[in-house]
Amino acid sequence: MYRTELDQLAGLPFAKGHATGNDFVLLADPEGTRNITAEQVAALCHRRFGIGGDGLIRAIPTSKVPGFETQILEHPKAYWFMDYRNSDGSIAEMCGNGVRAFVHYLLAEGLVNLPIGASLQIGSRAGVKTVTRLVDGYAANLGPWGLVHEAKAGADSVDSLVLARNWEQPHPALSITMGNPHTVVALPEAQLLENLDLTALPEVSPTPPHGTNVEFVVPAEPLINDGVAHIKMRVYERGVGETLSCGTGACAAAAAMRYWARGTALINQWAVEVPGGLVGVEFATTEDGIEDTILSGPAVLVARGVVGAS
Ligand SMILES: N[C@@H](CCC[C@H](N)C(=O)O)C(=O)O
């Protein structure tokens, strides 16, 4: 299986990295000549026949990405573009864990110089994102979040019903865009989150136009600690399956919980516990009144190699 695709990529250097257990195959394509097909992505990301990963990230100059040439004109500092693919080969607009792993990779490869405290602009299909290097990781400003079905969400804070198998009744949910689509489902108790069977994509109705990632969320005990709200989340990612973490999903989960609680308190600092670790989400209002979503957490490289070394 996948021999042909891997043979086609023979000699290609790669790195393997992760951010809270959400793992990626990372490639550099400084000339913008290495088009990777969906089948090749699936081959590289396969956990038995390939390297293994939830997704593949190609580093390519923004000026060389078809359809995104103007992004570099508007944001001349966004030299590098994160070309993100899910493990099934499908394209996703954004990946919050991926953009931290991506910047860590650029730094490790010597493609950028980024002292602690400094920031870098990264091109992506969801626009330009600013990533700041922290002492122990990276903070990615993913910009404003939004409601997918705004008109429906307003009245009772719910715009979707998740019709997962074996549930006596559907769970209410909120569909949120972080550049990519998410549907956040509030579960009534932590035990349900632990016992959840996420071997298949939960059925979301209505499904957002471009499909959705689905996050299940419960408040942690205690919910608020030192002014930070704590929640627990599991995720089924579009184009992947269950993963150990999803950065944009954590932002969507915090945004939904904050939206549901908006009549009582507006907490801006959130800690989201996922099976692969902990990420931070901050909602920060800019001078222009825009509410940015800032995701922080670690990023790690675990290996480097060459495809098809045999
Ligand atoms: N794991 C990512 C999200 C990756 C893309 C997602 N599967 C989609 O199709 O939108 C994250 O950390 O945000």
TrEMBL record:
Role played: Catalyzes the stereoinversion of LL-2,6-diaminopimelate (L,L-DAP) to meso-diaminopimelate (meso-DAP), a precursor of L-lysine and an essential component of the bacterial peptidoglycan.
Keywords: Amino-acid biosynthesis, Cytoplasm, Isomerase, Lysine biosynthesis
Record's protein name: Diaminopimelate epimerase
Alphabetized Pfam families for the sequence: DAP_epimerase
Catalytic reactions on record: (2S,6S)-2,6-diaminopimelate = meso-2,6-diaminopimelate
Pathway: Amino-acid biosynthesis; L-lysine biosynthesis via DAP pathway; DL-2,6-diaminopimelate from LL-2,6-diaminopimelate: step 1/1
Residues the record marks as active site: 95, 246
Keyword Glycoprotein: no
Keyword field contains Lipid biosynthesis: no
Coiled-coil blocks: none
EC number: 5.1.1.7
Compartment list: Cytoplasm
Binding-site residues, substrate: 22, 86, 96-97, 180, 213, 237-238, 247-248
Tree of life domain: Bacteria
Site feature (Could be important to modulate the pK values of the two catalytic cysteine residues) residues: 182, 237
Enzyme category, top tier: isomerase
